[in-house]
Amino acid sequence: MVPCKTIRDEQTGETLMEIALTGQQLLDNSLLNKGSAFTEEERRELRLLGLLPPHVSAIEDQVARNYENFRRQGSDLEKYIFLISLQDRNETLFYGLLQEHIAEMMPIIYTPTVGLACQRFSHIYRRPRGLYISFPRRDYIDEILANAPNPEVAVIVVTDGERVLGLGDLGIGGINISVGKLSLYTLGAGIHPATTLPILLDVGTDNRELLNDPLYLGWRHERVRGAGYDDFIEAFISALVRRFPNVLLQWEDFARHNARRLLERYRDRLCTFNDDIQGTGAVALAGLLAAVKVNGERLSEQRIVMFGAGSAATGIAEQIVAAMKSEGLTEQEAKANLWLIDVGGLVHTGRGDLEEISRPYAQPLERLADWQVADRDRLTLAEVVQHVRPTALIGTAAQPGAFTEEIVREMARHVARPIIFPLSNPTSLCEASPADLLDWTAGRALVATGSPFASVSDGARERRIGQCNNAYIFPGLGLGVIASGARRVTQEMFVAAARALSEQSPALSDPFGSLFPPLENVRAISRLVATQVGMEAQRAGLAGQTSPEELERRVAEKMWEPRYLRYRLAQHQS
Questions:
Q1: What distance in Å separates the CA atoms of residue 553 and residue 484, rounded to the nearest whole number?
Q2: Catalytic pick from 34, 79, 80, 110?
Q3: Is residue 34 annotated as part of the catalytic site, yes or no?
Q4: Pick the catalytic residue: 34, 79, 95, 181?
């Protein structure tokens, strides 16, 4: 528990913090530590005299000092370790630094660098953060949850580490994904860091390299599957509902054979969502909505080919269908506009090997009757593009180079401004580089990527490449849920979030601008997203009714800022 409370000085009206910790214990508490910024008065009252260098620093000076040290690090992984070490010492300064340099540092604390940090977790481990619930300790889940550092938990991100980004099974290293996501909740939407909790469910790993690593910190056992796994998840959720009945739970980086079925099983038991499915879907939908508006078209008029048919792809498809239905299409008409491709080729009703997750999007075999192809049972991306003539092409299959020059040029022959989203991450798994996509389409393509890319020059101007980053959606959604008191998360909330984000696209005022706003604007965007999500929750009867003005006030009130308050020793400690 964080030993403090926020109070208002009756004489001055100043907001200050009343704390119970003093001396070295205070300096060791990352949520309360101010380092060299403790004032002379605080140093005397809180028994810090002599424990700090004598000069009192402003937070601006601390940010400058730490940025200088950040830039000295020799690699992205070393920069990651530096930032996480700062987070472990002083969270206010950590977020103050990130807020000043968000575009530069978000790729370090999250994708793509966090993927490497997950791979190297057991070798770069410094301090524990969050909770580790291992299968052998499944009878102690209530006790483990009771050990959460703060009893007032608002948001939890949980993973079992089986499908980390496009890197596969990373076992206990997946905790860094949960930590990174929650950092973005705070950075992007001001969710107070004391109310966030990362959790790793350790059910073993099938990664032989990890199992053979003498430094591996996880449970050295092959992954538990089947009934044992399901019983473990059920025990976790049951304990979670008992301990934190009003928490928002985000599922993260579960393998596709578990991701959707767990979401479906528990979405009505607690306030929960899966960011890989729904968050990815919403941010991709926002990019599509902006792109079709630039083209003067409607989403319901698009022919969309999706290279990939797993959790991310079907999550995007689900959001697109919901948005097309809002434009007047039936569900069947909307699905007819979506062409998904998995490892076996085009997903269609003539195939007997379809996975359950992609079956709802199978195209009727009769629609392919006139196609001149060598093997109708294994239709390739190139063949689908040739016959469908898509207006939009989306990649989620983690197959680098899949969007070849031949395929892109064929698409661009039939579309004035093709929409192309190579969304697989990290960067090494991207389907095509933005520079190539713009080159192959003579600069006409509307491009957004899953990982960050530098701007591309087309000779006349610099083209900023928008990142289809879930951080535009899930922090604001979480803020909206918390501020409105929503009891559940619905598909319509994600569509509302996507529409709010799409309206902030720079491309709406500059047709060759980025489809997504600068990351520096993420807090303002999260505020807009949160308000729309809260309004949708109220409309659906999942939150108490307020006026729009009151909801906006609650959203603003919940947004924590990384600034130091004045401290006062709790009276019983004096």
A1: 11
A2: 110
A3: no
A4: 181
Q: Which residues make Cβ contacts (< 8 Å) with residue 290, sequence separation at least 6?
A: 502, 505, 507, 508, 515, 516
Burial 360-392 (b: 16+ CB within 10 A, else e): bbbbeeeebeeeebeebeebebebbbbbbebbb
pLDDT-above-70 percentage for the chain: 99
User: Which has the closest alpha carbon to 33: 64, 6, 4?
Assistant: 4
State yes or no: is 132 an active-site residue: no
Q: Above 50 in pLDDT, residue 574?
A: no
pTM: 0.93
281, two tokens: 């879907």
C-alpha–C-alpha distance, residues 380 and 378, integer Å: 6
- Write the DSSP string, 64-128: HHHHHHHHH-SSHHHHHHHHHHHHHH-HHHHHHHHHHTHHHHHHHHSTTHHHHHHHTHHHH--S-
Coil, strand or helix at 279 = helix
423 neighbors 442 (Cβ within 8 angstroms): no
Note if the bond before 426 is cis, omega within 30 degrees.
yes
For the chain, how far is it from start to end, CA to CA, in angstroms? Answer: 20
Tell me if 522 sits within 8 A of 188, measured CB to CB.
yes
The H-or-E segment that residue 45 falls in is helix 40-45
Round to whole Å and give the CA distance between 112 and 517: 19
pLDDT at 303 over 80: yes
